[in-house]
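3.2 Worked example (two chains)
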Amino acid sequence: MISRKIDFPKLFMGLILIGLLTASCNNNKEPVSFTGEAQGTYYAITYFDDQSRNFQPQMDSLFKSFDLSASVYSKESVISRFNRNDSTVLSDQVFDAVFNKAMEVSEETGGAFDITVMPLVNVWGFGYTERSKVDSALVDSLLSLVGYQKIKLVNRRLQKEDSAMMIDFNAIAQGYTCDLIGKFLESKGINNYLVDVGGEVLGKGTKANGVPWRVAIEKPAADASDQREIQVTVSLNNKALATSGNYRSYFMENGKKYSHTIDPATGFPVQHSVLSVSVLADDCMTADAYATAFMVMGLEKTKQFLNTKRGLEAYIIYDQDGVLTVWSSKGFPNSNAE
């Protein structure tokens, strides 16, 4: 498992959306559609196959294979053994792909995305340990263990500047598995599909009637227990969409809300006005990583970044004096960018 317990309200919403997305399909060509549980969340997959093959067992195997490489919740995974400084473990193809993309996005965003933030994620209670009593002294001591420049892969072994450093792929894992499943389907000659892993989605081709896949972006809720509502629906024209938000995963202490998004520069949860970021990209791993990075960067820095970065579009929902407000980049469907 990657990070969270099964989110059944989100699973229910995903099932409803799959029903909406497939209901209008041409009845002469029925889709193959199934759901399951993996990586601490749900998955929902729909595709069109002339042979009507059901590949769910293979999908479950792909998730298990990923966990054996890149899940910090599997004690014998490659990443867990690297975190324990096991000198006998070597990276594999899955680990290499995720690690290299993480390093690329870290470099592009000046460290706003950083997989070495794991020790801080744990002490704040958003990882695999109980929340600690956090103060500035503890955060300062852990910040010395954070910094993507302090790690590298050499001959399939992870090298760290400090043996106490730990890494976590949670902010990129679901996006990568969407891509992995997409590649598997394409290897079977299936080119019209929608893959949804915990809300990160990849859509290729179209439905049977030639209509693009459409997916929803959730409206940020005032409280984690609030009913889920759709903010907007988006067409996926051979694109991936990933969303990162602060309105469901947080804790309250002394009247203050602490979100699960940790700023690698400060070691504290981010405190700016952005509530959620949805990113469109050609692949889901890229979209997933940048959605997290933009949550750290905030609205203005993200706007500036997108002015020079091609291949990415973003839809940002933020709080402006108590009012939910939307900004989206020029290439995003229904954009309101100037």
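3.2.1 Second chain
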Amino acid sequence: MEKIIKGIAEFQNKDFKEREKLFKMLATGQSPEVLFITCSDSRIDPGMITQTEPGDLFICRNAGNIVPPHSMNTGGITASIEYAVAVLGVKDIIVCGHSDCGAMKGAMNPESIKSLPHVSNWLGHSSAALARVKARHGDLCDDHTLEMIQENAMLQVKHLETHPSVAAKLATGDVALHAWVYDIAKGVVTCFDATTNTFIPVEDWYYAHQKKDSKTA
């Protein structure tokens, strides 16, 4: 806690003062363009990875960057998605997994989390991703972890499509969905590219789509 208290003091004396104008503007409202859904893992800092300012990202975090399929059972993730899309009007929704994800390792090895009933139930939302990886490889090992992380990010994007607020915006082209994976050791962020059916560096994906959009404009 001592490190955190010192950090607050440093923020107030340095960062806040340097950006006081920004914080005064944010004090009266927010208008983020991106809903960023990622893992609760302490190694993931969405603002640092994307080099964004406060107010740029509407962030949801949970174990395994899970998006439960829509149901009438209200939950925090479902409510946050609905608010971000229907009220804040975000234009993009990113599901960002990451390397060395403990949640995905747990999903691949259910015995390791059998004493954690809530975690086990929560990771049931990754079961379709697990089934796809198992179908390709049979018995799983650590070498398949990245594939599981990627499949999970893509699956959660599919789950997003079941949410009425998202489905409505997809129908009118007012929102775009993205599956990302962040490599902690390399600092690289990859994005699923539907044209190649692979994950490619986000910069390459963006450049390719910018060229495509300019040709059709």
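3.3 Remarks
The mean pLDDT is 94.
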